[in-house]
Amino acid sequence: MSIAPGQTLAAAVTEATAILADAGVPSPRVDAELLADHLLKVGLGRLRALLLGDTPAPEGYAALVAERAARTPLQHITGVAYFRYLELAVGPGVFIPRPETESVVQLVIDHLKGVSQPKIVDLGTGSGAIAGSLAAEVPGAEVHAVEFSAFAHAWAAKNLQPLGVHLVLGDLRTALPELNGTFDVVVSNPPYIPADAVPHEPEVFLHDPPEALYGGGADGMELPTAAATSAARLLRPGGYFVMEHAEVQAGWIAAMLDRQGMWRSIETHLDLNGKERATSALLEHPHTLK
């Protein structure tokens, strides 16, 4: 099955949808339309109007469809990932931000309502989705971001520089010692997949960088534990820590924070799909540390 030269846009998108469906792409029609719009740059509303007429398919469309059918991530083909109100530059070497992470950003925004000029750090920022969203949506916020991978750091720099985020290339376990005890919020979406849990989706296991997926150790909990330890170091007393994790890890994360003996008000939060997606806690005041 292939897209024949000279087809109308409508016929080509219909054919592309069938090709992508046969390849197992989860959202074939949406992806077929987004690939067409990537070439035409008219917006999806206008594109769908053009599908009602005899507009010709854009040159190069068949090649993009074939690339997506090979399970190259859509965002690598278009170079763009959409996250909350941001349009992020992405590509090989950086983790593609997921929609469920948007709810983690919302937890921070809700917590900071009424707080003037909060100081926030995102540990393991990847493309900069969390840090960038907070810089854009929290008035007066001073936002910092840390990324270990040089490739991901380059993408984050492109996305975060216009938003005024302070980005550093560094390890979330040791970064920003000069700012210990100064942050109102530490947020993190660290790698957390166990070593033997290979993702099923080709877009993930073939294209997302392994260092953004696997959390270290058999259970994948080395980096999440390190993120919590760094959060305790970076936060001011009473500061807020929130971390994304897999839904099956919620109990483990809450127990780990409790064992650290530095946290109170430990709470698990559901994402929009009703899955236990994040855990938050407040740093206990130093004189009451266990």
UniProtKB/TrEMBL annotation:
Keywords: Methyltransferase, S-adenosyl-L-methionine, Transferase. Its EC number is 2.1.1.297. Transmembrane segments: none annotated. S-adenosyl-L-methionine binds at G124, T125, G126, S127, G128, E147, N189. It catalyses: L-glutaminyl-[peptide chain release factor] + S-adenosyl-L-methionine = N(5)-methyl-L-glutaminyl-[peptide chain release factor] + S-adenosyl-L-homocysteine + H(+). Residues 92-197 form the Methyltransferase small domain. The keyword Translocase does not apply. InterPro entries: DNA_methylase_N6_adenine_CS, HemK-like, N5-glutamine_MTase, PrmC_N, RF_methyltr_PrmC, SAM-dependent_MTases_sf, Small_mtfrase_dom. One of its GO terms (molecular function) is nucleic acid binding. It holds the Pfam family PrmC_N. Residues 12-79 form the Release factor glutamine methyltransferase N-terminal domain. CDD domains: AdoMet_MTases. It is an enzyme of class 2 (transferase). One of its GO terms (biological process) is methylation. The keyword Methyltransferase applies. PROSITE patterns: N6_MTASE (PS00092). Substrate binds at N189, P190, P191, Y192. Methylates the class 1 translation termination release factors RF1/PrfA and RF2/PrfB on the glutamine residue of the universally conserved GGQ motif. Belongs to the protein N5-glutamine methyltransferase family. PrmC subfamily. This is Release factor glutamine methyltransferase. It comes from Arthrobacter ulcerisalmonis.
